[in-house]
Design brief:
seven-stranded mixed sheet; 291 residues; alpha/beta; 23% strand; Rossmann fold
């Protein structure tokens, strides 16, 4: 089984007519994803990539039965696109857009409270259920259906870990990029809980980095819940300078907050196996599963 996605996931693309939206919509369709339409105000009634275009998410949902959206809208208007999808009560939104203004994302998170929507991102590479559905911009080719769930803050490291997990003969149930911006929707702990509840997931890999306290929140949860499934982790940025952003908008250590060594210590104390290097993640989760 997979989390978040299945064979019945029907997707609309917000911002489909731009270069990024067009390119990645083609990639998703070629993967076998059910893309059913696009949303771009002022282009309703037209078609793009032989798919119907709509002026609003509500119109697209009513006409197509869509139950998920992916957002390719530029940062200045990305929050409005997410809020529109939340108001339309779409169950799932993935936002690829990077560096959405933090105050805009605070408004989006407030709108999510009590809503029927789960948001992945912003600054997410998306969600991939191998052989079932690709809702994102991740590279494909090394993924295989399997039993390891992956939750990550880094797109490039996700691709590396997917290849290692496949090489270990395990495959993936689902990979989820929670997003690299400081303020985003689904947190690592929430994703971990979904994997723990999924009967098709036997092991879980967490890919973290400097900045924020999500990994410590995961460690606290693992300590209290004592899950029976194998959990491995990779934390990058051990030698990153403080108070300097490293790639992602959320990858920033301020004072004692977001330190990589503190994250590793918290996870190891909780019983999570932490890979000593990025090239050993596959071996680490395989060892955790075998023991």
């Amino acid at each position: 089984m997979a989390i978040l996605l299945d064979h019945e996931t029907r997707i609309i693309v917000q911002g489909m007519t731009g270069w990024a939206g067009t390119h990645h919509t083609i990639q998703m369709i070629e993967y076998g994803t059910k893309v059913v339409g696009g949303v771009r105000p002022g282009k309703g009634g037209r078609s793009h990539l032989d798919l119907p275009m709509f002026d609003s998410v509500a119109d697209a949902k009513a006409a197509t039965g869509a139950n998920a959206s992916i957002v390719f809208v530029p940062p200045a208007n990305a929050a409005a696109a997410m809020l529109e999808a939340i108001e339309a009560e779409l169950p799932l939104i993935v936002t690829v857009t990077e560096r959405v203004p933090a105050l805009d994302m605070v408004r989006v998170r407030e709108a999510l409270r009590g809503s029927r929507t789960r948001l992945v991102g912003a600054n997410s590479q998306g969600v991939l259920a191998p052989g079932i559905c690709k809702l994102g911009v991740m590279a494909t080719g090394s993924e295989r259906p399997g039993t390891v769930g992956i939750v990550s803050r880094s797109a490039s490291l996700t691709s590396e870990v997917v290849a290692q997990v496949t090489a270990a003969g395990l495959g993936q149930s689902t990979t989820v990029g929670v997003g690299g911006d400081a303020v985003h929707g689904m947190m690592m702990r929430e994703c971990l809980e979904l994997f723990l509840a999924d009967p098709g997931t036997e092991g879980i890999v967490l890919i973290g980095e400097i900045g924020g306290a999500e990994e410590q929140e995961v460690a606290d949860y693992v300590t209290s819940a004592k899950p029976s499934k194998a959990i491995a982790a990779l934390i990058v940025g051990m030698h990153a300078p403080r108070e300097r952003r490293m790639g992602h908008a959320g990858a920033l250590t301020l004072g004692d907050v977001g330190d990589a060594k503190a994250k590793v210590a918290a996870l190891e104390k909780a019983g999570v196996r932490v890979a000593p290097s990025a090239h050993l993640v596959g071996a680490t989760i395989a060892d955790a599963l075998s023991n």
